[in-house]
Amino acid sequence: MLDVKGLTVTSGRKTYLKDVSFTADSGRLTGVVGLRGSGKTELVRAIMGLIDADEGTIELAGTELGYGDRQNFGYLPSERGGYPRMKVLEQIVYLARLHGMTLGAAEKNAVTLLARLDLSDRAYAQLSHLSGSEVARVDIAAVLAADPDVVILDEPFDGLDAESAEIVFGLLRDHADSGVPVLFTTDKWRMAQEHADDLIVLAHGRIIGEGTFDELQGDERLFVARFATSEDAEAAAARLTEAGAESVDVEDSSISFTAADEATAADQVRGLASLRSFGPRTRDLADLFRESV
């Protein structure tokens, strides 16, 4: 497992991270999600030892990482590079060999990854001849080709279409299942919600939410009741508030509110005039973020 403990990163008067602590468990996908400028890139750079932290430590399997201890980390930075005139297969093999792989192992992994990423027919094309989505998939292949012990990806889904993103998540899941921690950052809330095992929500350099999506939902659930008219909804909202419903919000002819469970919510709406429908609504990750800031 990868442990981030008390990480604080500043530059001049700017604080990028403040006392950030979490664990990225082996065998799981950990998604760090937040708006642009929330500190995601500074977090992965600090984990990779590319910037110095003012405070805190990074540990792998209980041992603090020092200089040279990240040789077999797979890292995808937010700034993409690559060698435009190098052939795709050659590039992946070359980068894998920089991690110490033999030529045979690197070639075998590269061929397998290109097949998984639907890029076999592009293996001998120059990188500069590929589309943006194809280049983004090559970047993922280059990260995974050396069978890294830890995978750190900064905004890996930029440039990927929806179908390619699903393929990439399948690869990342397989790599996590081999027993390594896989951590990625993203500002794509729905994607993180659907695919990450564990979520870290960052805002202004601080963790404001942490856990599985179900854990972030909390004990209370959101419910929606729809009425015949907006006037009926306004009247019903007043009655719901009097009855003890929380977070009551009216939008046109609908009311949303929270309750501990569906039975309690049903009791609160029972008997309200002009009620047309009632049921639970799952808040997505973006909703939970808005409620937290």
Descriptive notes:
The protein has helices at 40-47, 88-98, 103-116, 132-144, 162-177, 189-195, 213-217, 230-242, 262-269, 285-292; strands spanning 2-11, 14-24, 29-33, 55-60, 63-64, 73-76, 150-154, 182-186, 198-203, 206-211, 221-227, 246-251, 254-259, 275-281. Helix 2 packs across helix 3 (103-116) and helix 2 (88-98) runs parallel beside helix 4. Strand 4 and strand 5 form a beta hairpin. The longest helix is centred in the middle third of the chain and has 16 residues, at 162-177. It starts with a strand and ends with a helix. The radius of gyration is 23 Å and the shape is elongated. The strands form three sheets. Strands 6-7-8-3-9-10 form a six-stranded mixed β-sheet, sandwiched between helices. The protein has a four-stranded antiparallel β-sheet with strand order 2-1-4-5, with helices on one face. The chain is α/β, with parallel strands linked by helices and 293 residues long. The protein contains ten helices and 14 strands.
List the helices and strands and how they pair.
Elements: E1 2-11, E2 14-24, E3 29-33, H1 40-47, E4 55-60, E5 63-64, E6 73-76, H2 88-98, H3 103-116, H4 132-144, E7 150-154, H5 162-177, E8 182-186, H6 189-195, E9 198-203, E10 206-211, H7 213-217, E11 221-227, H8 230-242, E12 246-251, E13 254-259, H9 262-269, E14 275-281, H10 285-292
Parallel strand pairs: 3-8, 3-9, 6-7, 7-8
Antiparallel strand pairs: 1-2, 1-4, 4-5, 9-10, 11-13, 11-14, 12-13
